[in-house]
Recover the amino acids of this structure.
């Protein structure tokens, strides 16, 4: 078993309160997609990932404020085709419904453009 897999398992067992709260809601909230938690992706372990939507959710504490490593990490994950969104731990703990609304925006497909002649004012 790889070092990253072992570390991911350890992180799953020792989630922060914010991670536990979001995971509880991602599992039970009817978002229509499956998420994985503490998932190894190449040299990284991401907090949450939804493979069908290519969406990664990262939760950050104060130590991540203006962290250059996070910007590099996000750029590498984006280059793999993922969208990375970040929330502060206190956002999850104080406004979980707002966080879920934001996540849902990334999960909903964009509407089809109107057919020719539709959607124009007369």
């Amino acid at each position: 078993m790889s070092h990253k897999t072992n570390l991911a398992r350890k992180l799953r067992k020792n989630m922060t309160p914010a991670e536990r709260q979001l995971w509880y809601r991602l599992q039970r909230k009817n978002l229509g997609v499956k998420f994985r938690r503490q998932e190894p992706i190449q040299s990284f372990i991401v907090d949450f990932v939804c493979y069908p939507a290519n969406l990664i959710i990262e939760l950050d504490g104060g130590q991540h404020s203006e962290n250059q490593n996070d910007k590099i990490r996000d750029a590498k994950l984006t280059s793999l085709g993922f969208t990375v969104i970040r929330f502060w731990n206190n956002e999850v703990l104080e406004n979980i419904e707002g966080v879920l609304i934001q996540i849902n925006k990334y999960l909903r497909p964009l509407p089809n453009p109107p057919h020719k002649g539709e959607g124009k004012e007369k």
Residues 17-28 form the longest helix (12 residues). Residues 46 and 91 are 18 Å apart (CA to CA).
